[in-house]
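Protocol step 6 of 9: fold each sequence in the batch and record its structure tokens directly after the sequence line. For illustration, a two-sequence batch is reproduced in full.

Sequence one:
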Amino acid sequence: MTWHEEGYVFDGGTSTYTTTGDCVKSGYLWRRMSDPTNDIESGNWGQFAWPYYRLAEIYLNYAEACNEKPNRDEAEALRYVNLVRERSGLNKMEVAYPEVLGNKELLRVLLRKERMVEMAFEGHRYPDLRTWMIAEQEMNEPYYTRNVAAKTYEASWERTKDVFPGRRVFQSKHYFFPIHQKQLSEMVNITQNYGW
């Protein structure tokens, strides 16, 4: 391993993936929820916080509910998504996307994207895709990642599907878990979930 101006470059690439197969598969680590005084280089790991439920999640859930309820309340939905955006230093939703006003479907799409970015790396994406019943469109694709096998720093930022071969597979039956046979045997009026 050698140090370059851009960071560590490992023998055979820019990460340990090429020698050990071990790496963060997305190619990204994050500093969120960690004490900014942590100095990992000197072994001071400090404190890490992992909230189970964040205020931003409550706001985004509420904004989504306001957009989807029968008596749609667009103003309230925008108010709460904008609280999340404001904390991040972003423009209000209706300023960044003026075409969202009066457009329920576009607001739905933008709220989902906002949630994807805000809740990144917190374990919400897979359940969200299943809740919205769009996992079949979003999950059936190759494993994309940064090019952790790259030989240069610049090339390591390229998006690739060649590092981890294969595809993610999501079938309609994956929206529900299978019911264990023991439970099916005990409750004779229950049928197995679709596809299992």
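Sequence two, same batch, same settings:
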Amino acid sequence: MPKALFILTSHDKLGDTGKPTGFYWEELAAPYWILSDAGWQIELASIQGGKPPADPSSAEGDAVTDDVRRLLADDAIMNKLENTTKVDDVEVSGCDIVYLPGGHGTMWDLPASKALGDLLGAAFDKGAVVGAVCHGPAGLLSAKLSSGNPLVHGRRVAGFTNSEEDAVGLSDVVPFLLEDELKARGGKHQKGPDWQPFAVADGKLVTGQNPASSAEVARLMLAAADLPAAP
């Protein structure tokens, strides 16, 4: 059975606002079911291990999709989510996909994690698919390949846009603007209309723009997993 590793944020506060944040349920749920239903085994990890925080806004109203409801109702998965592996302790060698769900929490702890950056670089070097959606591509910022280049350098990449960050009123709260930092690492940033599904695959790097893009990211990851490894 092929295996995918999902790595979640452990950060639970929006800067100095005191407001809660974390991972975004839809960005975990949609890819989880698309891969699981396709026969993949999914392991869950987080930056600190244990139970990662969820953004409460992603469990309200229209954010609660059928995929989210299905996940929340699955006791076995919820138990896995209570006991995620710390990213420092993860063994990535058997994983063919490594995926980073978003949520604003990722903007603080994913780029700061050397263990995550090293893991992503090593996974990509060995031919694994690396995927991320919305704010999840923040985790790609510290990832470097064995060549020394940033993982995103010269590759097409998407992520939460400056205009979307402005629209949610958090451009002055987040520690950086993701679109700008992806470009600063040499990424060829691409985007679609705000809030519409948009995802891009560049070989085995798959990224998506916003929560609406998470299912398409999962489908592109499955397709990329069937590609031969780059020389």
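Proceed to step 7 once all outputs are recorded. Observation for sequence two: Residues 13 and 20 are 5 Å apart (CA to CA).
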